[in-house]
């Protein structure tokens, strides 16, 4: 069953049970989808208002981009589960089987790849969140700020899920490359989040 | 329709559309539920393992408490929508109607109350997250850390949603009381989060 067709209750129950999937990776993708959805809502509440006329075009772009992002995120959530299941299968291969090492390494790389895509997608959602925080309808500004918290959380979750897989990967060039890319993404996302934090304070939402 | 019976896709679509509900408040409650569910998963993966025998009892408490918390959070999500709808109705009362002022004030207070409950519930989830981060199965530690990010995000979202309603409330004693309580909660939650951040770094999950 595709995750998007599960009810909220079913999904929470599935996460909670004694099985590592769906776990943080899939949850992170859902959380990023919620951020994208909030951005769409803010854009929808901004479009057509005389006061925000000059931001009409950029809000149309928010709508379109976030819709595509949500589709990719739903796909990431489903793939995260499949990738993790492959790791579990590889771990079950008997230790004296000569194929074990390679299959496990391959599965772990895939299991690192999927949350890495989530990390990249979270950056995209955070970028569009800056737009809704800056130019969105002020009546919905708390929703835009909420999207910022969710984009940041989704990125951090993605990061933890990449890192836990990297810990078991032997290919040190692969590990180094991913760590560096993650560091760069982190700097970028935290930079945008800090801009938004200034808006949060300037609008009197910091206590 | 109760939120918990919506599919993930339906919920995201509902958030995204041109209507302020469901908005940040309901999304925040769902996000806190996801954090609670991840804590349950970590507890489930810890219970019954010889290595973690000494934490069996506390993990049983995590399971029980987080299950109850999820029920309260689902209720908060539904009530957030109803409270917001009441505010929208009160805003529609003609300005020359003498009842308008009181009805609007009452609706706004309720709309601040519900996310305030979410803020309190996020503190509870964060408390239990510290337990799963400290004593949970190390193989699922990225999931416990993910729960920490979600608890923090849920609290911030709750805070923004309380504050946006406080801005329109005339009763200054009410506003002051809520702001102070929120500040206290914030200090407490950030304190626990900072403890968890040390665990994140100590376990090599910081880059």
UniProtKB/TrEMBL annotation, chains A, B:
How is this protein named in the record?
Cyclodeaminase/cyclohydrolase family protein
Q: What keywords were assigned to this record?
A: Coiled coil
Species per Swiss-Prot/TrEMBL record: Thermosipho ferrireducens
Q: Where is the Cyclodeaminase/cyclohydrolase domain?
A: 7-183
Listed InterPro entries = Cyclodeamin/CycHdrlase, Formintransfe-cycloase-like_sf
Q: What is the lineage of its organism?
A: Bacteria, Thermotogati, Thermotogota, Thermotogae, Thermotogales
User: Which Pfam families does the record match to this protein?
Assistant: FTCD_C
Locate the coiled-coil region(s) and give their ranges.
52-79, 175-202
């Amino acid at each position: 069953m595709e995750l998007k067709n599960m009810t909220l209750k079913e999904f929470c129950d599935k996460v909670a049970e004694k099985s590592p999937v769906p776990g943080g990776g899939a949850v992170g993708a859902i959380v990023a989808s919620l951020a994208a959805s909030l951005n769409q809502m803010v854009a929808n509440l901004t479009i057509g208002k005389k006061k925000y006329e000059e931001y009409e075009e950029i809000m149309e772009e928010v709508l379109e981009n976030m819709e595509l992002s949500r589709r990719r995120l739903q796909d990431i959530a489903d793939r995260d589960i499949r990738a993790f299941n492959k790791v579990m299968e590889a771990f079950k291969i008997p230790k004296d089987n000569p194929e074990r090492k390679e299959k496990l390494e391959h599965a772990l790389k895939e299991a690192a790849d999927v949350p890495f895509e989530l990390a990249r997608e979270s950056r995209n959602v955070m970028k569009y969140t800056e737009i809704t925080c800056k130019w969105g309808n002020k009546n919905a500004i708390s929703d835009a700020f909420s999207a910022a918290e969710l984009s940041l959380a989704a990125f951090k979750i993605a990061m933890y899920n990449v890192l836990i897989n990297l810990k078991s990967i032997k290919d040190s060039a692969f590990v180094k490359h991913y760590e560096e890319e993650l560091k760069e993404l982190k700097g970028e996302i935290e930079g945008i989040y800090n801009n938004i934090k200034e808006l949060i304070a300037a609008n009197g939402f910091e206590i």
